[in-house]
Structures are given as C-alpha cells and as structure tokens.
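DM from R.C. (forwarded with permission)

"hey, sorry to bug you on a friday — could you get me a structure for this? deadline for the figure draft is monday and I only need the backbone to look sensible"
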Amino acid sequence: MKIDACFLLGYLTGTHGLSGDLHVVLDTDRPESYKDLESVYVLQKGTNALVPFFISKLNIKGDKATIRFDEVDTRDRAKSMVGGQLFLPLDQLPPLEGEGFYYHELIDWKVRDQQQGDIGIVKALNEQSPQPLLVLDFHGKEILVPFSDGIIVAVHKTPKEIIVNLPEGLLEIFLEP
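My reply, with the result:
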C-alpha cells in the first residue's frame, strides 16, 4: 500500500500495560466510526514503508484509544512502535454529507479570489504546518494559501472550486523574483 492512497488516522503515543498495548491519539472528527477496525497500516518512525497490522483489541474513548496488535505481545515490542503513525486506505473514509469534504479531495480544484479572480489550481495540501496550506500553481509559480476561516470564503463541490479572500500583498510575496 502506498502512503498517497491512504489517510492518517492517528499516532502511537505510548505503551499501556505489559501485554503490548499502545496508546493512540486519533486524528479524526469522528473516532467512533473506526470502532470495528480489523487492521491498520503503521508507518514506523524512521521508515517510509507502511506495514499492515491486524488488531486484536481496540478501545476508543473520545479522540484517544488503546490498541493491541496480533503480532505485538510484549511491552518492549510495543515500545519500539511508539512514535509511529496509523493509516487506512482512502476508501475507508466515512462518507460525508452535503458540502462536507476531505482535504485530499481538493487536489486539482480551481481557486478563485474575490478581488483578483482565478489564482490557480490546488496541486497539494500541506498539513505539516500549524494550519493547513493550499499549494497552488499560479502561472508556473508555487504559492501557499492558508486554509483558514479568515481566508476561505466558500468551498463548492460543484463546480470543484474554492473561493478565497486573500490578504492584501499575499500573492506578491510569492511573485517577487
């Protein structure tokens, strides 16, 4: 499984007990949607490979959980996994209602500023910063637009378009040589 065909479900943050259980922080708005998981992919720290793990026990409380994998039966083995990330295939995302969307769906959508008109196409989304950033191609130059309430005016699934109100001078920062 390739990472670009998956979404981040959560993080392995610590061990729990002596039998190999792990603490998980879930990075989702609806943790209860995942209570019946049978397996996940784990991206272990320091690697680029997703490794499948079967779940023998999962207990979700709010955005936190404890998990036990079939192959992990000691505290030492669990400890070696702390810092890993849990992933699932994109087709396991729960369906959204109405105008709801997932960030990965925004790729290739048009972005239009209320004052300047069309400003580009979403090429990627950077979720590593404190707030997500839309990565746009604007006339061959890469620009970053914060995905925040003060800037994003509307997101329309039909047509695939994001309406923004860019702060004065934002485009110019990226267009200067």
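R.C.: lifesaver. The two ends are 40 Å apart (CA to CA).
me: no worries. Residues 42 and 86 are 5 Å apart (CA to CA).
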